[in-house]
Amino acid sequence: IGKYQQSFKSGVEFAQRFISVNDELPEDIETDGRTYIPCIVTNGNTKTIAFRRLSPLTKKWNWNVMMEVTHWRPIDIK
Prior knowledge:
The protein is α+β, with helices and mostly antiparallel strands. Helix content is 17%, strand content 37%. The chain has one helix and six strands. It has one helix spanning 3-15, and strands spanning 19-20, 29-31, 34-42, 47-54, 61-63, 71-74.
């Protein structure tokens, strides 16, 4: 593999890495008065699209999926 191909491959691998929830949590995004965080999440077995939302009742951040989230990666929504 050439130098540029390897650099491209490394960039793709970096962009697709999952981050442990123990190491870092995503930053919040406010859109139309709502604060939420779109992500791809996994529990090691299943991958799905999820949101972290600030609960208006408890004022805590919660995932909107019925699984224990262990890792996440951002979704760039524009």
